[in-house]
Structure to design on (535 residues):
């Protein structure tokens, strides 16, 4: 069997075969192991094929047995950058036998910096794409970090661009060419699937590179950090201001609210909002109607474990209202109320557990704010001195590289692309209100809800934290729903869900703006007892 690499596939962004014209025909060995070995000779501009390995069937990922497959590890554009640091876009491609005709790009997470195994994983409840027979690619997006939180690459301008958008296209072009070389034909369908940073990458692909993917799943997308982090920094300042101080007079952020204080707030949210969907069942489905007043929790006298101080009520209410500048202008939406404020995840993101004057909360230790979302990078910036009038402007320049809050999907629509975007309502790392605001703007810019739902559907999972976990039903499968939409024309109105937080319970997640509303009879644990309805 023979193949031809399309000229357009390889010419974009300066990528092409080095040793032969892109129209050259190459024989494909009949046996998979031989076909895999032959990929060592593939050559692309400024690219090194580091390793090619054929793996026997039997490897396990997310509880699924993987088929026999070829693993290609390569690097594009190796160079020496700022401060003598070595950079390059590293990627991995896994090619299964047999193959189902699909190619899937596995999105990254955090600020990347590591090449994760290209299994095509998303979260529990979704069978890894490789186990289904799809070819899968993953990348470190152009830099090597000590972890996915290492944002030191932000000091290098090209590394910012590679991470922001360029690496996804470079890897996609080469991966698709290798898919064609290995199988002797191009992929019939191309997908991008990711959550968190990978969710942002998926939205970026739809907006910048609509020609590359038929379908995209973007979960909990970090779509506009240059704006969202304004809310994070204002919240840190508000909580720090009410925190008890040590013997040196230094505030201890983790003590701004005790665990009993957070439980009081959590209980108030559930008490005021749980039944708004007709079922008092521990899940807040009617999240849009959830408006919580904490004044009833305020102590009449001295502070005790049974009440909140006036300062605590004021600070928490301020944080949930969202950041404003000194003129009262709203800079970003406030986070939504949902169950889970007393969780370890919420504390870890906002307050941390440090008993010293140096906070360890995820919002405070997020180096990407200093190195990536501020332009120029400012590694020594003190978050606790953030100025709502002066400093937001310092974060706007990064938007041209990182943001995916755009609503121009004309190219994606023209190619017939479909996308599913979802977020957990209890996500305290990515503000769900910001994602919902983006979808509202998408609807307005694309002819209304009906027209928008022809190519983009939005789902909110009540109680679910960042990508997974929380006091919600976090096991659902947007990937199969997307495949059915792209390949069979069946658009998803609901996603069936379940989860360890409520054993035995099933429920549908309804496409926005509908919610799952109790019909008035039947078990709360049965999906059939609920209907999708506009709240």
């Amino acid at each position: 069997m023979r193949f031809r690499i399309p000229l357009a596939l390889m010419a974009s962004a300066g990528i092409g075969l080095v040793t032969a014209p892109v129209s050259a025909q190459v024989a494909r060995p009949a046996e998979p192991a031989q076909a895999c070995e032959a990929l060592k000779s593939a050559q692309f501009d400024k690219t090194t094929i580091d390793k090619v390995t054929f793996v026997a069937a039997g490897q396990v990922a997310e509880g699924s047995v993987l088929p026999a497959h070829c693993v290609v590890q390569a690097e594009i554009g190796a160079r020496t950058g700022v401060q003598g640091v070595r950079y390059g876009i590293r990627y991995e491609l896994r090619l299964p036998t047999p193959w189902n005709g699909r190619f899937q790009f596995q999105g990254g997470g955090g600020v990347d910096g590591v090449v994760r195994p290209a299994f095509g994983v998303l979260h529990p409840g979704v069978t890894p794409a490789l186990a289904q027979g799809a070819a899968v690619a993953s990348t470190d997006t152009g830099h090597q970090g000590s972890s996915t939180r290492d944002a030191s690459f932000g000091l290098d301008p090209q590394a910012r661009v590679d991470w922001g958008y360029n690496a996804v296209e470079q890897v996609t072009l080469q991966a698709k060419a290798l898919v064609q070389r290995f199988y002797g034909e191009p992929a019939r369908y191309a997908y991008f699937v990711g959550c968190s940073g990978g969710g942002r990458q998926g939205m970026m692909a739809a907006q910048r590179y609509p020609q590359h993917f038929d379908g995209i799943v973007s979960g909990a997308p970090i779509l506009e950090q240059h704006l969202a982090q304004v809310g994070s920094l204002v919240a840190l300042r508000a909580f720090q201001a009410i925190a008890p101080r040590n013997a040196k007079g230094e505030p201890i952020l983790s003590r701004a609210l005790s665990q009993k204080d957070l439980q009081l707030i959590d209980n108030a949210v559930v008490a005021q909002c749980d039944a708004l969907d007709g079922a008092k069942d521990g899940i807040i489905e009617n999240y849009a109607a959830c408006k919580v007043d904490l004044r009833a929790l305020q102590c009449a006298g001295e502070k005790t474990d049974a009440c909140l101080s006036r300062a605590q009520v004021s600070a928490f209410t301020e944080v949930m209202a969202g950041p404003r500048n000194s003129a009262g202008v709203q800079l970003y939406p406030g986070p939504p109320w949902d169950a889970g404020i007393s969780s370890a995840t919420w504390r870890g993101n906002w307050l941390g557990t440090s008993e010293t004057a140096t906070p360890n909360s995820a919002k405070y230790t997020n180096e990407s704010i200093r190195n990536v979302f501020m332009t120029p990078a400012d590694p020594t910036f003190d978050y606790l001195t953030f100025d709502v009038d002066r400093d937001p402007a310092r974060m706007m320049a990064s938007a041209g590289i990182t943001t995916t809050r755009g609503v121009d999907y004309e190219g994606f629509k023209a190619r017939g692309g479909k996308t599913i975007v979802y977020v957990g309502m209890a996500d305290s790392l990515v503000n769900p209100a910001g994602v919902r605001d983006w979808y509202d703007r998408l609807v307005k810019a694309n002819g209304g809800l009906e027209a928008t739902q022809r190519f983009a559907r939005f789902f909110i999972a009540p109680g679910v934290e960042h990508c997974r976990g929380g006091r919600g039903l976090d096991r659902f499968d947007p990937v199969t729903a997307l495949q059915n939409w792209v390949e069979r024309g069946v658009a998803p109105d609901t996603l069936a869900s379940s989860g360890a937080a409520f054993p035995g319970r099933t429920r549908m997640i309804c496409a926005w703006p509908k919610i799952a509303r109790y019909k008035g009879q039947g078990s709360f644990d049965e999906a059939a007892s609920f209907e999708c309805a506009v709240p």
Confidence is low (pLDDT under 50) at residues 1-29. Residues 1-187 form one domain. Residues 274 and 280 are 5 Å apart (CA to CA). The longest helix spans residues 157-183.
